[in-house]
Amino acid sequence: MIIESFSTQDTFQFGKQIGEEAKPGDIICLDGDLGTGKTVFTQGVAAGLGITEPVSSPTFTIVQVYEEGRLPLYHFDVYRIADIEEMEEIGYDDYFFGKGLCLIEWSELISELLPKRVIRVRIEKDLDKGFDYRRIVYENISD
To answer: The whole model's pTM is what?
Structure first.
């Protein structure tokens, strides 16, 4: 599915819809260049889960856990992972195979750790369509 977003509010609302539909154990792989709106999308997902606390990218902590919603949200930012063993040190499999929703920014950097069943979301800019335009590609991959 391809969603066209013309504002940060559009991106937020699509994320919120995804959060409202999320099930325990879902893993969302969120990719896109810097500044494409990954954090805005994630804030929407959190809102859809009923999380009201501020959500920001966990760039320096790798994972941020939000537990106040209807499902826990495990928000990963693996941009700064230098070695895949860092993921093992934080116990990634407890999150990936837990009862919450995992959202992983820059997931392509840890592709060898990802299970086969994931939801892939890629956010892309197209400046020809405007500064705020985003093309959001959503795929539910099960094999």
So the answer is: 0.90
